[in-house]
Amino acid sequence: MGKMKAVVLLSGNGSNFKNILDRIKDGYLNMEICAVISDNEKAYGLQRAKDENIKTFSLKDNINDDLNKFLDKIDLDLIILAGYMKILPPDIVDKYNGKILNIHPSLLPKYKGMNTHQRVIEDKESFHGATVHFVTDKLDGGPLILQQKISVDAKDTAETLKEKVHCAEYSIYPLVIKWYIDGLLEQSENNFLFKGEKIESPIQDISNIK
Ligand code: GRF
User: Which are the contacts of 170, defined by CB distance < 8 A and separation ≥ 6?
Assistant: First the structure.
């Protein structure tokens, strides 16, 4: 089989995109990123892509129509959301069902939506983290695949939590993408299959997984 083809959708800095790209370059991920797409033409992630000679595409006024048309032109295996701040419309989610991954900065189902780090501080949580999940029509509500927990210290601020969560993201997102590339992962309605076995809640301990 040839290399899988993925597109990355982002709205901002794109450090997760950069990290995934680094893991392609070091041979960990056997995949090609054929385009980086953004709803924000000023997103630094677009510049990162240009610097690597990866095709970029900015969504303008009718962003979902533009996105649909663009995606239709590519024979896609995977859509990677990496800090994409818009909600994908139902027709795209339907068309690419089981082929869309997202990373969210919280231990879902806790703290869906925005400003997760600040909300975690305000609620005096002891733990926080990141979650990789399949995307469905429910906001941050698709099957949860893998989580990494971090502890929240008394001195933490939203800013320090953001850094800690990003570190966690850089390890779990490439791992899930690798599982997907290796055919170990499959979406099955509201759950997912890992090596053919139905998993009902997110994997949190990867020590037993090779
Ligand atoms: C990450 O925290 C990710 O979980 C969320 O958006 C942020 C994107 O960060 N969806 P970056 O643009 O990859 O640095």
Answer: 15, 16, 19
Residues annotated as catalytic (active site), given as ranges: 104
Q: What is the dihedral of CA 143, 19, 4, 81, to 10 degrees?
A: 40
Looking at the domain 4-199, which fold is it? Rossmann fold (3.40.50)
Find out whether 129 and 153 touch, Cβ atoms under 8 Å.
no
Tokens encoding 37: 């797409």
Every domain of the chain and the residues it spans: 4-199
Cβ of 8 less than 6 Å from ligand 1? no
> pTM score, two decimals?
0.96
Question: pLDDT tens across 144-172, in order?
Answer: 999 999 999 999 999 999 999 999 999 99
Q: Which atom of ligand 1 is nearest to the CA of 102?
A: 10
Residue 141 amino acid letter: G
